[in-house]
Specification:
The complex is a heterodimer.
Chain A lengths: L2 E6 H11 L4 E4 L6 H12 L6 E4 L3 H13 L4 E5 L1 H6 L1 H9 L5 E6 L13 H5 L6 E5 L2 H16 L7 E6 L7 E6 L2 H4 L19 E2 L5 H16 L2 H15 L6 E4 L6 E5 L3 H14 L4 E6 L1 E3 L3 H8 L4 E6 L10 H10 L7 E6 L9 H16 L7 E2 L5
Parallel strand pairs in A: 2-3, 2-4, 4-5, 5-7, 6-7, 11-12, 11-14, 14-15, 15-16
Antiparallel strand pairs in A: 1-8, 6-13, 10-12
Helix pairs in contact in A: 1-2, 1-7, 3-5, 7-10, 11-14
Chain B lengths: L1 H10 L17 H13 L3 E5 L3 H6 L11 E3 L5 H17 L9 E7 H7 L1 H10 L4 E6 L39 H6 L5 E5 L4 H13 L4 E6 L3 H4 L6 H10 L6 E4 L2 E4 L9 H5 L10 H22 L2
Parallel strand pairs in B: 1-2, 1-3, 3-4, 4-6, 5-6
Antiparallel strand pairs in B: 5-7, 7-8
The chains are: A alpha/beta, B alpha/beta.
Chain lengths: 391, 307
């Protein structure tokens, strides 16, 4: 039976990797991810998991070792954050193009400089185009559930893509929360054994990572893109199977009190939970406001985003990252481009905040709604505004 | 020669694991070395290859030269990829999955990926004690990108980023002692080898294969394109490098140095330098300076080998 426990989200992810019977973990310590792999190394040391734990000398080598172990057909897990994800950057692309089903938890963190170990989405946004499946979790329960699902999705024969499970650094990773853990017997059969179709094996030699001249590179990238988009079907199926089995359902785009809303707030990550408090307050005052959370980041759920925003008159987009010298918030740019061709589209107001671990309070979300109205009423056209910045 | 055709097939497999048809330059010492190393390794092997000449000449999609399982991912991460392969195999075999025989895990890279950009990953993999062989094919510069200097480029050599000019003499730093760096990790086996001495190379690869734990083999690989030497001289140049003391052949087994062949008295360095365009600009003084260094290094090595 599921048992309700109090547990740090990082530990919950380690429990999920254990339940999935991970075979190789290659990891390097970095705040705020470290608790995940510390806990996993304890699990391995206690003999609760039959796995090889490789204490690599950098994140670049962590992901490289993951490529090696995954290429021989071993179930592979790692975790990182911020600078670590950036150090892996070029390796991430190879993991995707080699179609290796590596699962990685990312405790989202700001990027230097100045040095900052706290949470925001700068690291995610910089790895947006690397060809991984990526989704966000907002609390310990989701982090646990969706790490379990990650193995089943990534390793599905029709998928074979690496997958990042994002959780906000500290705001989720270090928070002890109540959650339902699953027992080994309960999830038996949920994640089938990994049967990687083309492993490195002397019995049937394969060449992996051959180089592509200009005459083939475009085709290989296009093929990868088509394949990544087509993984959505399996993602939805696995989430449904998980929901049917354990009662917790997940969707690419989720909403809160959004049915008849004229103004919607769209955000990702744990701050969406804070925003619900603001939504409740404003609803109590009779305002027609609601919340949209984007869970699936890659492949981007175009149809679901369009459907969710279709009937709103204005949409506030809240970014925890900044595109320096560019269009402001990277999430906002994506939503705008998803809506651009729509015949009827809402006005969009962009806010950036919560950088480098700074809190955003429910009151500040309320202020975003008020400011949104002001900007629209007074026809003020700004690229974006920064919440709580001292100028 | 007739005698060789009778005896050699008994000593060396006629099977080719690095198949003909690749696109290495004419007279490539590295291709020869890789072919020999593969013969010595046999078929129960998985190779991780760094970006570089060998990867480029052997793997253009949709073709491959490799008849053994082979993976390339990046330039600086080969030793880390090999770590993952070794750990993955270990857990799979423990659980009764994966290959049913012992598999040798091998990482291969050039001098750039070994001594420069991939040194950290290599150091990490050796320190962690993975059971694998790292083979560095040293052609003494970044040949794949067009002959730029590396930390393995010898003093005085002209390259496209250490060019000899009106003021410069070419490379002004001495070759990094990579085998000593490997040995400093207290790994069980380190060796130098050269395809001009194929039986010595075979023996060393086989020894590395048998030893439990990390093994490092540094293979001298003549590059006619980068060294501006005649392609037909490649095997001879390898021998000259050994006989002049420029590239001595030795092993370091559990920290103990052992000369594979004693070449003293050394042949004069100039026999080696005069047939290579990369050294042609050197004055007698500079050649003499290098000669003295070679003699000193060789004497130091002899001393280490004599215990």
């Amino acid at each position: 039976m599921s048992k309700r426990v109090g547990m740090e989200a990082s530990f919950a992810i380690a429990e999920a990797a254990k339940l999935a019977e991970t075979e190789v973990v290659a990891a390097y310590p970095i705040t705020p991810q470290t608790h995940i792999v510390e806990r996993l190394s304890e699990i391995v040391a206690d003999g609760e998991l039959d796995a090889e734990f490789i204490c690599v000398e950098s994140e670049h080598s962590a992901m490289s070792a993951c490529i090696g172990s995954s290429a021989v057909g071993a179930r592979t897990f790692t975790a990182t954050a911020g600078q670590g994800l950036e150090l892996m950057h070029e390796v991430l692309y190879v993991a995707a193009s080699s179609r290796l089903p590596i699962v990685m938890a990312v405790a989202n963190r700001a990027l230097s400089g100045p040095l900052n170990v706290w949470g925001d989405h700068s690291d995610v946004m910089a790895t947006r185009d690397c060809g991984w499946i990526q989704y966000f979790t907002e609390n310990a329960q989701e982090a646990f559930d969706l790490t379990l699902c990650a193995f089943k999705i990534a390793e599905a024969p029709e998928v074979l893509f690496p997958l990042m499970v994002h959780l906000d650094g500290f705001h989720v990773s270090h928070v002890v929360e109540p959650l339902y853990l699953l027992e080994k017997e309960e999830i038996a059969g949920f994640i089938p054994p990994l049967r990687y179709p083309f492993p490195l094996d002397p019995r049937k030699p394969v060449t992996m990572g051959a180089f592509a001249p200009p005459v083939l590179y475009t085709e290989s990238k296009k093929a990868l893109e088509v394949a990544l988009r087509s993984t959505k079907e399996t993602i939805l199926r696995v989430w449904k199977e998980f929901g049917d089995a354990f009662g917790r359902y997940y969707n690419p785009v989720e909403s809160y009190r959004a049915e008849d809303a004229d103004t919607l707030l769209l955000a990702i990550g744990s701050f969406t939970e804070t925003a619900t408090v603001a939504i409740d307050t404003l609803r109590d005052r009779g305002e027609k406001v609601g919340l949209i959370r984007l869970r699936l980041w890659r492949p981007f759920p175009f149809d679901e985003v369009r459907a969710a925003l279709r009937s709103a008159q204005q949409v506030i987009i809240f970014d925890r990252a900044i595109s320096l010298g560019g269009p402001g918030g990277p999430l906002c740019s994506e939503i705008k481009s998803a809506l651009y061709q729509e015949p009827k589209k809402p006005k969009i107001v962009s806010f950036i905040g919560g950088l480098g671990g700074r809190d955003i309070t429910p009151q500040q979300f309320e202020q975003m709604f008020a400011r949104c109205r002001e900007l629209i009423d007074k026809k003020i056209d700004v690229e974006y505004e920064t919440i709580g910045v001292r100028e | 020669m007739d005698r060789y055709s009778v005896f050699v097939p008994r000593l060396i497999t006629s099977k080719e694991y690095f198949a003909p048809g690749h696109r290495a330059c004419i007279g490539c010492g590295e291709a020869l070395a890789v072919r020999h190393v593969c013969k010595a390794l046999g078929k129960d092997v998985i190779i991780a290859n760094a970006t570089g000449c060998m990867e480029i000449v052997s793997s253009a999609l949709p073709t491959t030269t490799w008849r053994v399982p082979w993976i390339h991912s990046l330039f600086e991460n080969t030793a880390a990829v090999a770590s993952g392969i070794e750990s993955g195999l270990k857990v799979l075999q423990r659980k009764g999955r994966g290959p049913d025989k012992k598999v040798t895990v091998v990482a291969m890279g050039g001098d750039g990926s070994t001594c420069d950009i991939g040194l950290q990953a290599l150091s990490g993999a050796m320190e962690r004690g993975h059971n694998f062989i790292y083979v560095c094919f040293d052609n003494e510069a970044y040949m794949n990108t067009g002959i730029q200097r590396s930390s393995a480029t010898p003093f005085g050599a002209t390259t496209s980023t250490s060019p000899a000019g009106k003021k410069g003499i070419g490379q002004v730093t001495w070759k990094k002692n990579m085998p000593a760096i490997a040995a400093a990790h207290a790994i069980p086996y380190v060796a130098t080898a050269c395809p001009s001495y194929p039986f010595d190379l075979f023996e060393k690869v086989k020894r590395a294969k048998e030893i439990e734990g990390p093994a490092y083999i540094h293979v001298f690989s003549v590059c006619p394109t980068g060294w501006r030497s005649a392609p037909e001289l490649s095997v001879k140049l390898g021998r000259l490098a050994v006989e002049t003391g420029v590239f001595p052949l030795y092993e370091i087994v559990h920290g103990e140095y052992k000369l594979s062949m004693d070449c003293s008295p050394l042949r004069p360095l100039v026999e080696y330098t005069k047939v290579q365009g990369r050294f042609r600009h050197l004055t007698e003084d500079v050649v003499q300076q290098i000669q003295e260094r070679v003699v000193k290094n060789y004497a130091d090595l002899q001393k280490k080998a004599s215990g």
